[in-house]
Specification:
12 helices; single chain; DNA-binding; mainly alpha; 0% strand
Length: 261
DNA sequence: AAGCTATCCAACCGCCTGGCT
DNA sequence: GAGCCAGGCGGTTGGATAGCT
């Protein structure tokens, strides 16, 4: 039995979202919370499929998103996490507050991959390209992880980056996972992955503090918000909990200048 | 200025997983 | 246990834009 498509493609709009559609989706979600995505387009008056709405929200409209290029520290963290987790972008994104899996994936494919290749590092294995064959035939994980840390150092040297900011240095928990990562073999690797999968890092961890307060230092350039500043108030709802509903009523869905948004 | 190429990133697609009946 | 459904994930595509000749 074939799987049903996520939505009836007839009468469903595709392609780039308009400001009007964004507005409807934001209004709906802020009013009702995230409920059943399949029902969202109907209830919000959108000619989109639920999947498209979910993607638009998670990748672009969420008020807690941080826009702009990844900082060097974030980039470094992505590299480290990728070395441990592989292409599990959602897991990687979970460790970078305000970043989406799509964003990280794109950044990896367009920037980091090239950078690593340029440096002679295989982005897939995080091993030196010249030795990649030999390296893959080696099953000694310690050797691999040693090279991996060399890779990190090399990168940070060349980048002049804040590598130490990307990695935990003073938290015992963080250092323990790093250690297990350096031993990266079988069980340890598994434990690490489990830890990464299960642990929600506290947002106030200093080493994860990429938020605006540190942006100057880290060189993060905040890009324009999708709504071009017309709804800066949205930022006030960064902690509205995504799932919580009815926190705001419809009357709040107007920007301060009185225009509907 | 025009044409071509490279790059970026939002959006789509298909598959997988987990929850429910 | 089987089937269905919704949500989530990772890979890929395609339009827009920048850069180059």
């Amino acid at each position: 039995m074939g799987r049903q498509p996520c939505c009836d493609k007839q009468g469903v709009k595709r392609g780039p979202w308009t400001a009007e559609e964004d507005e409807k989706l934001i209004s709906f979600i802020l009013t009702h919370g995230r409920c059943c995505w399949r029902a969202v387009p109907k209830l919000a008056g959108l000619l989109r499929c639920g999947k498209s709405c979910r993607l638009r929200w998670t990748n672009y409209l969420r008020p807690d998103l941080k826009r702009g290029l990844l900082s060097t520290a974030e980039e470094q963290l992505v590299i480290d996490l990728h070395a441990k987790l592989g292409n599990r972008w959602s897991k990687i994104a979970a460790k970078l507050p305000g970043r989406t899996d799509n964003e990280i994936k794109n950044h990896w494919n367009t920037h980091i991959k090239k950078k690593l290749i340029k440096m002679g590092i295989d982005p897939a294995t995080h091993q030196p390209l010249a030795n990649s064959k030999a390296a893959t035939s080696q099953s000694t994980d310690t050797a691999e992880s040693a090279k991996s840390s060399e890779t990190r150092e090399e990168l940070s040297m060349k980048e002049g980056s804040h590598t130490d900011m990307a990695l935990p240095t003073d938290s015992s928990e963080q250092s323990s996972w790093l250690e297990s990562g350096n031993n990266a073999g079988g069980q340890d690797q598994e434990q690490l992955v489990n830890w990464l999968s299960e642990t929600d890092l506290p947002m106030d961890e200093p080493w994860l503090n990429f938020t605006s307060s540190n942006d100057d230092v880290l060189g993060i350039v905040e890009g324009p918000l999708p709504w071009d500043g017309a709804a800066d108030w949205l930022l006030d709802y960064q902690d509205f909990g995504m799932c919580s509903s009815n926190l705001i009523d419809n009357s709040t869905l107007h920007s301060s200048d009185g225009s509907n948004f």
